[in-house]
Amino acid sequence: MNSFIDIKRRKFLQYAGIGTATMALAPNWLWAEASPKNNAYLFSNPDVEIGMTAQVTEIPILSGPPTEVWKFSAKLLNGPEGTVEEIPGSYLGPILRLRKGQKVRIHFHNNVPGPCVVHQHGLHVPEKSDGHPHYAIDSGQTYSYDFQVLNRAGTYWYHSHTHRVTGHRVYFGLAGLLLVSDEEERALNLPGGDYEIPLVIQDRQFGNRNELHYVHGMHDRMTGFLGDQILVNGFPDFELPVATRAYRLRILNGSNSRIYKLAWSDGTPMTVIASDGGLLEKPERYPYVTLAPAERVELWVDFSGRKVGSEIKLQSLPFSGATPRMGGGMGRGHGRGRHGHGSSALPNGAGFSIMKVRIVRKEEVNQKLPERLSTIRSHQIQEAENPDHPRTIRLSMRPHSPRLNGRSFRMTAVADEEVFKLNSLQLMEFVNRDRRARGMMMAHPMHIHGQPFQIVKREVLPGFQQDYATLSEGFISSGWRDTVLVMPGEKVTLLKPFEDYEGLFLYHCHNTEHEDLDMMRNFQVRA
Ligand code: C2O
Ligand code: CU
């Protein structure tokens, strides 16, 4: 006979998209983690207080019946105006706007089945407010996250980070943007209001009752899930009406595993003003921008000189040339352009339109792109605590198990090499080479929690061709980042500071299906 816990577990696993075959294998500690937690209170008087819930609801996305989604809702309880903006009609959580220096408290109430936790992606916050799955709360419980905004102005986001179901939760909607501003950014007077457009790009797959379809088996998990329909801010066939003037587009790749090669349809270069960790020193131009899951990019685009009534598309270019396996074709040759595993008619690497921009209005006043945006102190290898001994993280794939240095995630486990000294700068490298499983190598968008890092260099490893050239011209390596796409046969060297907070934090692949297959580890910051 089923005990209560078994029923609860089955229900949870069903929501998690995990079939009955694996149910018996679900470890008990998965449940042990969802016990009541002490709030992460830091201050008695926060500057901003937000009430947030996660709940299952229905939203019309396509024509016909509404779609069941999981959604964050939030309300400003206290603090300056305009901090919480709902996107009407979207399954995405509201856009939270914060300022650098603010003391923030988020009261999170979990109203979805099973445990849930909220991670502020890209923000540098204390362990208890970082959304580590260890701090997940069970359905019906409330937990308060306290943190001070230490980050520079930038486009950040928040999403569920519940153990083994991050992909499922984010896919069904548990994500939203978190925009930080600061003095430096405000002084630039960049296009704001109606001229500042947040864009969250995601791919989804719908069944014939408009229900969302998620992973269909281990193959989808190993490649990462790919939808066949592109949504922007939660809407299909997204159109953006604009005036003949300059705009600031703040783009998040909120997809589970899809990599985009963003470009304007008429060949206009992409003018990049910011990446994950905020403004670049000066605008940079790219033929296209490669944007992996969880990465952000901010574009400046000037529509002045265009005719009212004309249109331009933001598209994803096909990955041409000897593109390595990007997912959607893993283990089946290159797999591009065919229905690799029956779940996606739109493989990673296909070309398609993301949204249409329609010029609808003439406007005489315009703004000029600043020549300088910010000052970034670029760190040197010699400043690192370990200039001659980088911490190496090897990315590898075993059947059913992508790994980091040969290890899988354990809730609180930390290896010796995963301990970092508080207030140090560390030289680190991601190495994507797998001698034992070369045929299974994939591109991995690697994310490190805590402070952002600087990319020192990207190198093709000996014995590999530069076969990723088709994507690499679109890599943004300047500025501060928290996620970096590491291509098969590539080594990426970076410098990362570990300041302010001791504690247990995560690093992982942000292909969320890989993350849920435990391609994730803890690191410990210790004085
Ligand atoms: Cu956006 Cu640990 O994740
Ligand atoms: Cu991965």
TrEMBL record:
Documented EC number(s): 1.3.3.5
PROSITE patterns recorded: TAT
Coiled coil location: none
Top enzyme class: oxidoreductase
Residues in Plastocyanin-like domain copies: 75-184, 405-526
InterPro entries found in the cross-reference section: Cu-oxidase-like_N, Cu-oxidase_C, Cu-oxidase_fam, Cupredoxin, TAT_signal
Entry keywords, A to Z: Oxidoreductase
Pfam families, alphabetized: Cu-oxidase_2 (PF07731), Cu-oxidase_3 (PF07732)
Domain of life assignment: Bacteria
Gene Ontology MF, one: bilirubin oxidase activity
UniProt-recorded name of the protein: Bilirubin oxidase
Provenance organism: Nitrosococcus halophilus (strain Nc4)
